[in-house]
Amino acid sequence: MFIRSIHIDSFRNYRRLDLDVEPSINVFFGENAQGKTNIIEAIYLCACARSHRTSKDRELIFHGENGYRVQLDMLAHRYRPLIVCREDAPVLAPTDPEKGVISSVIQKGDLPYSGRKKDDYYEESLAITYTEAADGPDGLRRARRTAEHDHVPLERISDFMGLFHAVIFAPEDLLLIKEGPSVRRRYMDLLISQVRPCYFHDLITYSKLLAQRNRTIKIMRQKQSVHMLSDLEESELEIWDYPLAQAASRILVERILFSERIRVLTREKHEQISGGKESLYTRYRTVSGVLTEEIQKDPHKHLEEIENLLISRWKATHQDDYEKGSTGLGPHRDDLELSLDGDGLRAFASQGQQRSAALALRLAELSILREETGEMPVLLLDDVFSELDAGRRRCLLANMEDAQVFVTCTDRNFIERELFDLADPAVSMKSEITFYEVTDGSVTRR
Amino acid sequence: MARYSPSVAKLISELGKLPGIGHKSAQRLAFHILSLPSEQVADLAGALTEARESTRLCSVCQNFTDKDPCDICSDTHRDSTTICVVENPRDVATMERMRDYQGQYHVLHGVYSPMQNVGLDQIKLKELITRLQGNPGVREVIIATNQTAEGEATAMYISRLLKPSGIRVTRIASGLPMGSDLEFADDVTLSKAMRARHEF
Question: Which of A104, A263, A278, A430 stands 20 to 30 A from A112 (CA)?
């Protein structure tokens, strides 16, 4: 899937932007604070229906306006194959959709169809619109966020997930290592939601039920000073335990399955980056402690068992939760643990080691999205070249393959040299790079 | 709202409080009402007060009714061994529309949702239990609360409450709408339909 043009209305520092982009490498250069990252952010918004920088839509609106709109027009494949590529299978990545040229060699039998021609593409359009709450002459209007697919508003944002995939590499990636578990849960949740729409639904259900359960605890605490729970109160909490466990067990199954793939891929990618000197290990850790080895091996088969284990764990901790004021166990507290040669990364690793690990996590995300969708996601590189050393840059470029890439940087010459020098000498990447200069909310092709 | 005289402004604001009526619709309705002959307005006002005053909750099923027990509960042709539990009176009307269900109803008037300040004692759950205790003839309770997180939670709770009684508790199926194409189904519905597939 390729973006053909970007249309932005009242978003960040762009009042209006209509920009045609190329299916290869697009480099946005310019001084700081001119709006380079905002373009990356707008594209990412259409992949995950939320910004990678903030959860507050209000911050995304052009100063003085009451809403924004981001629209991407693209060319998509007619087929959306389900898990087509193995790691070693050739990737389908046509370089020029107009002419229908297919760049990689496709081995027959590996794929359900033998090639893609011009007719295999169709135009697709995605948009996110946000309007702020307002108290106008028409009375009070609530804040509204709508997703559109081919100009038709979707009933639910969840229907939007999975239509378009992008992977972002940004300086903030370091937080994946440095911050607490919530950042890594978000990493997993965003990744899985993109390829498993039901997972997204389960997450929403889970968070609704969790809020209800916590509210129930709060009401109990307001009624009376802290005491031993009566049978009646216990059973009131239990009402939430059962449906929570249903959603939680499905969430856990997917997280276990994906964390296993993340484990294998991050180790492999990290070896590439570090030259095999160190080995990165990731592991999904539940605070509820329900994961036996047997369950981990084939979580789908143990769905019911996980559900029952969670119910009994929650039942056993009613008093605890009540005293602390909220639900202490569950997928909302779990973590994707990272360690380097046995040591925790957060505490022990150097800045450089943490950067390598973060890069490995993003590359794993890229591989999983490619495996799941059968096509290369769009890559967004936000000012990362200056932060990575030559070895890491090379590794990143090696993984880019024929993807459509959006790069931001301050120095045009530097990036030109980098992309040109590091690329495989057999393929001149220079000709495929398009430059755009960004100055104060306007973009010019150079 | 200085553009209107106080009485018109009050009418608009009262109409605007109704569900599904925004300010603009309220305005349109208000001016329509003002343009009607006064007898017709009196009829409308009368209908409003009369409906409110003569309507009570049926002591059996908790649905809105003019007489107690309601028409459905006092209909001897209906199957009194089956009770369908729904969230609100609207749902009874929906169920009746299909003319296929012969049993009785029980209206909860909401679902358990502490976030919306709806506690267990605010919904007609106790009434359901008392009703079942007084009617040992009931064989099946069909739970037809909405497919929301709270509707599902309430359904699961009722099923666990009734388990010891030996009454058969069922949940209505969810899945694809009839007569529509598969391609228009959303992913979650489709996946639920797949999970609940059955053998021919």
Answer: A263
Q: Which residues neighbour A24 within 8 Å (Cβ) at sequence distance 6 or greater?
A: A95, A402, A404, A405, A432, A433, A434
Which of A198, A216, A219 is opposite residue B188, by nearest beta carbon? A198
Identify whether B130 is part of a domain.
yes
| CA dist., res. A145 & res. A130, Å (int) | 4
User: What is the number of alpha carbons within 13 Å of residue A52 lying toward its C-beta?
Assistant: 26
Query: Which B residues, 160 through 179, put their C-beta within 8 Å of a C-beta on chain A?
Result: 160
Residue range A35-70, pLDDT digits in tens: 999 999 999 999 888 888 887 888 899 988 889 999
SS3 (DSSP) at B167: coil
Largest CA distance in chain A: 75
Residues of A whose CB is below 8 A from B187: 158-159, 162, 197-198, 201
Alpha-carbon gap, residue B142 to A295, rounded angstroms: 34
pLDDT, one tens digit per residue, over A63-94 is 888 899 999 998 876 554 433 333 333 344 43
**CATH number of the structural domain spanning residue B182:** 3.40.1360.10
- In a domain, residue B37? The reply is no
B82 in any annotated domain: yes
Q: How many CB atoms lie within 10 A of CB A360?
A: 27
Residue, of B22 and B144, whose pLDDT is higher: B144
Question: What are the CB-based long-range contacts (under 8 Å, 24+) for A212-217?
Answer: A212/A240, A212/B113, A212/B114, A212/B115, A212/B149, A212/B150, A212/B153, A213/A237, A213/A240, A213/A241, A213/A244, A213/A327, A214/A325, A214/A326, A214/A327, A215/B114, A215/B115, A216/A240, A216/B114, A217/A321, A217/A322, A217/A325, A217/A326, A217/A327
Rg of chain A on CA atoms, in Å: 24
Alpha-carbon distances of A233 from A60, A240, A311, A411, B117, rounded to whole Å: 44, 12, 16, 63, 16
**Phi/psi at A286 (5° precision):** -100, 135
Cα–Cα dist A322/B178, whole Å: 46
| Total number of domains constituting chain B | 1
**Whether the predicted pLDDT of A14 surpasses 80:** yes
Q: Does B67 touch chain A (CB under 8 A)?
A: no
Average pLDDT estimate for B40-49: 94
Of B16, B113, B149, which is closest to A205 when you measure between CB atoms? Answer: B149
Most B-contacting residue of A201, A241, A300, A311 (CB-CB within 10 A), to test interface: A201
Q: What is the pTM of this model?
A: 0.81
pLDDT computed for residue A421 by the predictor: 63
| B153 with A243: Cβ contact below 8 A | yes
Give the residues across from A136 on adjacent strands.
Answer: A139
Taking each helix axis as running N to C, give the angle between helix A197-223 and helix B149-162, from 0 to 180 degrees, rounded to the nearest 10.
Answer: 70
Residue A269: both structure tokens together: 């990618």
pLDDT at A390 over 90: no
Question: Which of the residue ranges A91-100, A400-409, B4-13, B90-99 would you say has the lowest mean pLDDT?
Answer: A91-100
CA distance A115 to A380: 27
**Is A338 or A388 the better-scoring residue by pLDDT?**
A338
Confidence grade of residue A291 (pLDDT, cut at 50, 70, 90): confident
Range of the domain at B148: 77-200
Within-domain flag for B68: no
